[in-house]
Amino acid sequence: MKNIILCSSNPLLIKNVYCVLRDEGYSVDTVEHPALAVKKVLWGTYDFVIVDSEPFGMSAGEAAQVIRSIAPGIPVMFLGDEGGQDPAAGTAPPLDLEEFTRTIHSIAV
Fold first, then answer.
1. What is the pTM for the complete model shown?
2. Cα dihedral sign for 106, 90, 92, 60?
3. DSSP calls for the chain
4. How many CB atoms lie within 10 A of CB 70?
5. Beta-strand pair 3-7/27-31
6. 60 in Cβ contact with 88 (< 8 Å)
7. 67 near 41, Cβ under 8 Å?
8. Which are the contacts of 65, defined by CB distance < 8 A and separation ≥ 6?
9. pLDDT tens, 4-22?
10. Distance between CA 16 and CA 93 in Å, rounded?
11. Angle 11-23/97-107 helices, nearest 10 degrees?
């Protein structure tokens, strides 16, 4: 089972994305702030990080930089509009849940 961190302060987004990930067989921890995602990566074992790019405190980009310095092999996906994509991974944010699921499966293999 793949372990994923889902980071967002949007409860509707968390509910929808969490349910999709759980139904696809992933173990998902949720946090509301990018700094907490960084802390979880530092203290846990995760295969994938999904960060809502809506700014609140530490930006998604800043969190991704720290996460990559701690655990360079963990893919980081942005949800929302932080530059439109994760330049390091080359993945665009999903437009719908079906596309999101395909994207997760292709990255979190």
1. 0.66
2. positive
3. --EEEEE-S-HHHHHHHHHHHHHTT-EEEEESSHHHHHHHHHHS--SEEEEE-S-SSS-HHHHHHHHHHH-TTS-EEEES-STTSBTTTTBPPPSSHHHHHHHHHHH--
4. 13
5. parallel
6. no
7. yes
8. none
9. 999 988 888 888 889 999 9
10. 15
11. 60
